[in-house]
Each structure stands twice: as C-alpha cells, then as structure tokens.
Amino acid sequence: MNATVWRQIPGASTHFPIALLLASVVFDFIARRSRDEGLRRGLHAAGFGSAVVGMLGGIGAAIAGLILTCGRVFGADYERTHHFFVWPGLVACVAFVTWRLMRKGRIPERRLGVYFAGMSMSVLLMTVAGYSGGEILLSAEAASAPALPASSMSTSLEEQLTMARAGRQLFLKNCAHCHGADAYGDDGPDLHHLDWTDEQIATRISNGKKGQMTAFAGKLSLQDTRKVIAYLRTLK
What we know:
By secondary structure, the chain is mainly alpha-helical. The protein is built from 8 helices and no strands.
C-alpha cells in the first residue's frame, strides 16, 4: 500500500468518529432535558451506541496516523501540536466510554453530568486535532510536488528548443482549451511572462488548483512536465 493511501486514511477515518462522538453528546444532552422517559431511554441508547462506534473509529484513526508517521507518538513541530490534542482527546474518550461500558450503558443521573462534560471535552480536543491534521496533510501535498532534476538547468540550446517544441504539442493537447492556443488566456490566465520558478510551475501542473485547474499528476510524466515548462519559457 503506497504512502498516498496512508495519507488519505487518517483524514477519512477521523471525521466520521468525530461526527459520531458529537452526535453522542447531542443525544445525551437532549435526553437529559427530556421529560419523556421512553424518549430518554432511546436517546441515551443512541448516544451510547454512537460513543462506542466513535471510540473504535478514533482508535483506528490513531493507529493509521502512527503508521503514517512511522510510530512517532509525539512528532515534531506542527505535528507535535496535532498530537497535543489527539492523545488527550482519545484517552478521555476511551476512559469515559469504557466507564459507560462497564455500567452496561447506564450512568446514574447524578454522574451523567460528569460523563457529559468529559465527552464534550473529548469531542472538542478531537475536533481541533482533526483540523490540525488536515492542515498537516495539505502542507504535505504542497511539499510533494515533483522535483525537477538539476540536469534541466544544463541542457543545451538545441535540446531546450526540442523540448519546447514537444512541450507546445503537449500544451495544445492538454492546456489550450483553458489557456488558449496562443496561451494568452481564455478560462485560464495568460501564461506569458511567467515569473514563477520551474518548481512552482511543476507543482501547479501536478496538483492543479481546486475548482480552477485540473491536476495532471496522473496524466503528464515528469519529463512531459519539463517539456511544457520549456515551452512556457519561450512565451515572452
């Protein structure tokens, strides 16, 4: 299983447990304020079930995160901030849900407030952890742009012209419908006089831009990307 899949698993597996834990807190809160005994039992049961499934999902997300970070429990830099919220939130969730499990889902009314406060804290911590984890993944994607080989800086003029001609054909096939056949822009912007570095252009070609430009990482090879960049450098 490649690294891209492992990067996606924590993000996909974290949001659902957080939603379940939040739903659990809401169910218990409404049940606590309800005067209908039947409704109270049903809501408490729904809250208990959501809490158990959410806890198991949270544990799964934490395991996936450990695999992704090669077992770094606390991480470094921004990753450490993320873990600062992950572990207290998960530990609190496991502790309170296990307590409720040991009581077969029943918590005395006088202690329900303690449980409710503890689970609310857990949901808050895990929500912040989920947000910070998303920021880490976005940063990782931005840093995963294809690195252009140093040899691209030392090619001869003839090789550059050959690459530029090939790049124009790739441009007409893949890019002209948005940027225009002359690259002066249509749906996409004018590409003349670009002041971006080769690496920045390669990043945009590879990753695209959400809602504005298609990502070509799976369509254009690194060599194709170099050819397109060589052509763009001729647009003065």
